[in-house]
5-aminolevulinate synthase (Loktanella fryxellensis), 407 residues
Amino acid sequence: MNYEAALSTAIQRLHDEGRYRTFIDIERTRGQFPDAVWNRPDGGKAPVTVWCGNDYLGMGQHPVVLNAMHEALDATGAGSGGTRNISGTTVYHKALEAELADLHRKEAALLFTSAYIANDATLSTLPKLFPGLIIYSDALNHASMIEGVRRNGGQKRIFRHNDVAHLRELLEADDADAPKLIAFESIYSMDGDFGPIEAFCDLALEFNALTYIDEVHAVGMYGPRGAGVAERDGLMGRIDIINGTLAKAYGVMGGYIAASDRMCDAVRSYAPGFIFTTSLPPAIAAGAAASVRHLKTDQALRDSQQTQAKILKLRLKGLGLPIIDHGSHIVPLMVGDPKHTKMMSDMLLEQFGIYVQPINFPTVPRGTERLRFTPSPVHGPREMDRLVAALDNLWAHCALNRAEMAG
C-alpha cells in the first residue's frame, strides 16, 4: 500500500467537500483582547478582532488571573513534575479542587487536564464501578461524552436530543433493577439551546438513575456564583456528577468533575485517564482557582456578556440574517453550505479583519454549516458595528437568503 497516497486522498476529500480545517495563527496581546494580530501565511501581520473564542468573559486577560499565575510560576517553576500520584499534587491543585467543590456545593471535585478527558475518563470508568450500568446519552452530547460512553464496554441508549418522552420510553424498556445513568448537557454549544434539566432529574428520581451533566459552556456564565445553568435553576443538588471546564469562561485550562467525595475518590482510583496523566502545571491551577474565586462574585461581568449577546442577536435579526436564538450567550449564524461558510470566514478575515471560524461537519450535521459568534464584555460598540456592517455586506455579496430561523 502507498501510505502517503492514502493520506493525500483522505486530505483531498476534505478539500473537495469544503471542510478542510485551517489553523489561523493568532497572537493575543495582553490587555487588548478581543483585538489580536493575525500572522498571515505570506509572512505579514494584520490586526484582527476575535469573535469566535471561548474565553467568554475575557478572564484570560484579567489581572487577578495573571497575577496568581505569575506568583505560582515564580514560587514553583514550570511543570508539576508528574501525575497526581507521583509528585504532581500541590497546594495549588488542592486549592483549585476545593474552590470547585464549593462552587458546585458538592463534597469534592476532581481535576483533569481538560474537560474532554474528564468526560471520557469518567464515563468510561463508571461501568467498572457499577457493573451492568446502562448509560442514556443525549444524541447531541459532546464528542468527549460520546467517546467515553463508547469506550466503557457497557450498555448505552441514545435518546433524541432533549426528548424527555423518548428517554422515558428507553428507561421503561430496561430492567428496573439495572443501574442507570442519564448523561446530558446544560447548554449545547452549536445551537445554544438548553437541556431540560429538571425533567431529566425527575426521570432519574423515578427510575433510580444517576444524573451526569456537562456544564462546560455554562460554568462561570450562569447562576448567582457562576456554577452553571443547574445553579441558576436551583437544581444542582439533584445532579450527581457535574462536568465543567476551566478553559472557556474561566479563561485558563483544565477540566473537572464535582460530585460526592466517594464518587470522586472512586473515579480517581479507577480511571486510567486520570491515573496516568501528568497534572496541570501549578501556575495553571493557581490561575484557574483565582478565576473561579473571582467569578463567584462578579455578576456584573456575566450581565455584561449576556447584554452583548442580546444586542448582537437583535442587530442580526434586524438585517434578516438567519440566526438561531435560544436565549443563551451563543450566536449561531446559519449558512448551510460548507464552501460558502468557509468563504464567508475567509472574506471576513481578509477583507474586514474579523476572525470567526467556520463550523462544518462533523461538528454539526451536513446542511447546517454555520458561523458561531461568541460576544464578550470586551467587544465594544466599535467592534459590534464593524461586525454587523461586514456581515450585511458579505451576505449581499454572496447572495444568501435573509430569513430568520426559529429558535
